[in-house]
Amino acid sequence: MVNDAWLIGEGHILRIVNESIDDADGEAAREAAVVPVVRAAGLTVPALVAHDSSKTFAPKPYTIYERAPGELIGSSPFGYEHYADCWRQIGREYAALHAIKPTDALREHVEDFDRDDVPKWLKRAVERGTVTEHDAEDVIVTMARWDSIGGSSKTGHLIHNDLHPWNLMGDPASGTLTAILDWGDAAFGDPARDFAMMPLRCVPAMLEGYAEAGIDASIEIAARAMVVGMSVALFELSTPEMEAFDRRWWRMPPGGWDEMKATANELWPELS
Predict the structure, then answer these.
(1) What Å distances lie between residue 47 and 67, 129, 131, 240, CA to CA?
(2) DSSP per residue over 2-55, as a string?
């Protein structure tokens, strides 16, 4: 959506910004600032070999990365259970990500993020007919309960901010993580956002890995992740281009709100 990509030989990927996307130039500069930092923190991220966001050497910003091995998990023929070790590994690595301290160099390109708005996107989804009035009433009541459990949103943590199966590479043989891709939306915000866009049944294993790394993974972060995830799902359901998102079920499952709520209550009975 943001970059056109080409394979260079067998070992590298060239990505050139599609400038029809808002802030595409900013995303390229943000990736170039963030990727070396998160790699130094131990995250499984392909090495950034070359980049230019200034358009000094090319008419558009570009990045060149080492090619990540494996398959795109979102397009894998395997079920998400096959990648259970991957979810725990992401949780452990995200504990390191969220511990990275803001620096002036990062602040130059990375902004604060706190723009979730369930009522706004819910209203638009109802207007589009993708959420019923009856479900909308239940969403409002349930979000209020989850909000009360989750407490105040945390701020100031470096987050990926766009973690979903189409930004993850895995080894189909072992079910392990081989790369976390696409850092163009990185921000400073609530760590719960990094658990908010994955399919729900992946999140408990991610939180287990988070806890294994010594970070609090209590019900509060799950509750906040549910609220953020609902905002993202409703945004998808509210957009005129929804049909273009074949993957729109990644947070709003095929069974809609009823399935999402039932799954959340099954995984975290404290939310019910």
Answers:
(1) 8, 44, 42, 36
(2) -EEEEEETTTEEEEEE-TTSTTHHHHHHHHHHHHHHHHHTT-----EEEEESSS
Residue 198 sits at φ, ψ, to 5 deg, of: -85, 155
Same fold? 1-67, 71-271: no
Q: Domain spans of the chain?
A: 1-67, 71-271
Q: If DSSP codes are grouped into helix, strand and coil, which group holds residue 185? A: coil
**Mean pLDDT of the region 108-132:** 88
pTM of the model: 0.91
Q: Give me the DSSP letters along 62-98.
A: EEEEEPPPSEEGGG-SS-GGGGHHHHHHHHHHHHHHH
How far apart, in whole angstroms, are the C-alpha atoms of residue 233 and residue 192?
A: 15
Cα 146 vs. chain centroid, distance in angstroms? 20
C-alpha–C-alpha distance, residues 185 and 40, integer Å: 19
DSSP structural state of residue 108: T
Please, is 7 exposed, middle or buried when counting C-beta atoms within 10 Å of its C-beta (0-12, 13-18, 19+)? exposed
Least confident of 150-154, 240-244, 264-268: 240-244
Q: What is the CATH number of domain 1-67?
A: 3.30.200.20
CATH number of 71-271, picked from 3.30.70.20, 3.90.1200.10, 3.40.50.360, 1.10.287.610 = 3.90.1200.10
The rounded distance, in Å, linking the Cα atoms of 17 and 121 is: 28
Q: Which pLDDT tens digit goes with each residue over 54-64?
A: 777 777 888 99
Task: For residue 206, give the nearest of 91, 98, 96, 81 by alpha carbon.
Answer: 91
- pLDDT bin (cut points 50, 70, 90) of residue 243 is low
